[in-house]
Sequence to fold (653 residues):
Amino acid sequence: MADRHPPFPARPPRPPRPGPAGLHGPNVLGWGCHPLPGSQTIASDGRHVWVICDNGTVLELDAVTGTFVADLASPSLRYEHRASGAVASDGRHVWVTNEGGGSMIKQVSGLVTELDAATGAVVRVLHGSAYGFNYPLAVASDGTHVWVAANDARDGASLVTELNADTGALVRVLNEPRYGLDGPGAVASDGRHVWVTSPVGESVTELDAASGALVRVLKGHGYGFDGPSAVASDGHRVWVANSVGNSVTELDAASGALVRVLKGHRYGFDDPEAVASAGHRVWVANFMSGSVTELDAASGALVRVLKGHRYGFDDPEAVASDGPDAWVTNGGGGMTELDAATGAPVQVVNGSAYGFNGPEAVASDGHRVWVTNLGGDSVTELDAGSGALVRVLSGHRYGFNGPSAVASNGPDVWVANLGGDSVTELDAATGALVRVLSGHTYGFNYPGAVASDGPHVWVVNLGGSVTEVDAATGALVRVLDGSAYGFNGPEAVASDGRRVWVANTFGGSVTELDAATGALVRVLRGHRYEFNQPQAVASDGPLVWVANLGGSVTEVDAASGALVRVLKGHRYQLNQPQAVASDGPHVWVVNNPQSGGGGSVTELDAATGALVQVLDGSAYGFNPPRGIAWDGARVWVANANGDSVTEFPRSQQ
Fold:
């Protein structure tokens, strides 16, 4: 008898990973996605992998490399603050469900968002009473039809909505009692048949994909349905995972007849929450045991139970297969990619390896990138050439306590610890601890910003002073304090070696110091500068750039302190700018809106102040951007809520 399954498709060759020759930006390192629980929260079409994260976004990965492509955060994907629930892709379209709900007084309809698989762009958002969406729980697409299984909380009815995959138009809503839909849990389609599990009713409903007509309702003890939570079909066989019964039911797709019920200790089924099938193999995710069972699709025979540290399984709850690979979501964070031909782990795709935890600030010397993790009391060191993780520095001896700022002058790295009233000095070449500067003599009082110009280290204390430290020895040089300096909520500091500039948020001013002596040069204030809660400052030598939280950037002549211009207006899209960096030709301003999420980076021409571009969109992964640094070739942005760092080439145009 001929093999009814095609041979394993060849896994596409993996392109070389970014190396010292340079990253291919933009890249997002350490994206923070904890997959949402559910059997249909991951989908793959061979080119893309789509994962629903518990923060309401949809993460897109490259199916060939497993690398980050985009963090999709359209408002519809987080509708009414309700996270997306299920995702399906047919290669051209991606369909994402959002549950509805509300109160007895006001009901909010659920919806389905269609994305373009090639670009991730929103195509349309489907909602309204005609669709029957209230609690859409599962979705499947075969390229021609889209099937959405839902509950209607208003009358307790269960239903399946059929959509046209090309247009998104409503075809029909199936909700009559004869369909046997009783708390639908999952849906699958192979193009000819549609299969819907009903965990409450302990049954599976089969529909004709072409007409939506009921074919049969499979129910009864013989099928072994016991909490049927997931279903998959490859056109020849149908596989139903029974999460309560710790079993898998195999059906004949053509007739609906029972083939066998797979059960027993050797299969390793332990709360099987998800199942996927493509080609020769069937993959079952076992939530409780942290394992995946691999079955032979032709015979139902056990191939192997995949388990162990190297697989990285952590509460596996969803699985998808695109032929060459199988992808498993881990509730603890990240995804595991398996080789479908061998079951071997290809990689564990997990942004948490970088140790990002509320990344607040970033600095780079061209060889290394240093990121402070405010939430984790740690510092992450990256290779500037490849973006690869070098090490995560943490532990009591480093003295990290609310590390909120970082600066590097080449040989040394300086970390300001906001909560510890201290500064940690590291060896830039090795990451080794040099010393922790603390004690009353340094005058540290909530140190929130730090800059180094080589000989000097300047630490801004939010309490209203600036501490100067000798970079070679770590010895105190002086503490600058007093009303003459105009320090009033000093928030940021920059030095070009000749001058030091301190932004005073509450005072609406900038203090200029002589870098050699620490002497006061002048305090820049007044209406003409339009300082409006100055939050950040950068200097490239000839010019000084001040980012104002109120929505503008003030450009100052470094030699004279004279105003050059104030940049503001809608076209700059300066939205609560909180960080700024300059390399001479370019200026980058980080926009960190306090509401609405997201964020952007505005690039300016340093010579003219003209707008070059505004960098935003899902590919950059800004969530929201907080700190920024450049290393001569690349720009690095720390994303505080996304637990990630975005890198892009210095010039995008």
Q: What stands out?
A: The chain has a mean pLDDT of 88. The two ends are 60 Å apart (CA to CA).
